[in-house]
From TrEMBL:
Keyword Metal-binding listed: no
InterPro entries: Fructo-/Ketosamine-3-kinase, Kinase-like_dom_sf
Stored Gene3D superfamilies: 1.20.1270.240, Phosphorylase Kinase, domain 1 (3.30.200.20), Transferase(Phosphotransferase) domain 1 (1.10.510.10)
UniProt family annotation: Belongs to the fructosamine kinase family.
A Pfam cross-reference name: Fructosamin_kin
Protein name: Fructosamine kinase family protein
Keywords recorded for this protein, A-Z: Kinase, Transferase
Length: 252
């Protein structure tokens, strides 16, 4: 088996460049942080990485990953929405553009860069109902007013942490394919909860203990899932729009 894996179909001319910057930024989070796949080579046309060999997920690896993810988040970012070090401009989440504009407050950032643009796009193509769009706007109003902010500083987050980007190997978990930026740590955890992951309960408990998120964090998971649901409403259909509408109704 080749020891390298080459990606060669970028979603956009600069997609691999921002992905590589994100991988390096996450890897620079310091001792005890989550393992991140190494960037061997990168050009606008290809990204070369070590080939990872998946292994059976274990509870120990999951617990170690939850703790390490909290350490990565604690490495911080200059602001909410800040791009990875070495990158200027916007990024991508999957095939969709992702705004990376530094913002002082999480609520403002999340409303204006993560919810409304994708709600508008999903509404335009008929995958989010007018009622759903109104509910998202109400959530955005609460976010802009600071009602859902907390005192946690900007975290260094992966940004697209579904199970397919969490690779269990013989030596533990390695992360791939980020949409890295300054955000809220619960956003990464919420993505894992949205699409599922091996040993998710163990990961979550270890993360919550290491990050000190405090009681009641589970009740905010849906709020942080609203962004990926709206992204998927744009890319994967109206079923995700209906789910986004239901979730928005809980926080409007």
């Amino acid at each position: 088996m080749p020891d390298r894996f080459t990606k060669s179909r970028p979603a956009a001319p600069d997609a691999y460049l921002v992905e590589a910057a994100g991988l390096r930024w996450l890897a620079a989070a310091g001792p005890g942080s989550a393992s991140v796949v190494e960037v061997l080579e990168v050009t606008p046309d290809q990204l070369v990485l070590p080939r990872l060999v998946p292994a059976r997920p274990t509870r120990r690896a999951a617990a170690e990953f939850g703790t390490a993810l909290a350490t990565t988040h604690a490495a911080g970012a200059p602001a909410y929405g800040a791009p990875p070090d070495g990158w200027t401009g916007d990024g991508y989440i999957g095939t969709q553009p992702l705004s990376l504009r530094p913002t002082d407050r999480w609520g403002t950032f999340y409303a204006e860069q993560r919810l409304l643009p994708y709600a508008d796009a999903a509404t335009r193509i008929g995958n989010l109902s007018p009622r759903g769009r109104r509910l998202v706007e109400r959530v955005a109003d609460r976010l802009r007013a600071g009602e859902l902010d907390d005192d946690r500083p900007p975290a260094r987050i992966h940004g697209d942490l579904w199970a397919g980007n969490v690779i269990f190997t013989a030596t533990g978990v390695t992360l791939i394919d980020p949409a890295a930026h300054g955000g809220h740590g619960l956003t990464d955890l919420a993505m894992l909860h949205l699409f599922g992951a091996p040993e998710l309960g163990t990961i979550s408990a270890a993360y919550a203990g290491a990050a000190g998120v405090g009681p009641g964090w589970q009740g905010l998971i849906g709020l942080h899932q609203l962004h990926p649901l709206l992204v998927h409403a744009v890319t994967h259909g109206a079923g995700y729009g209906a789910e986004a509408e239901a979730v928005a109704g809980r926080y409007a």
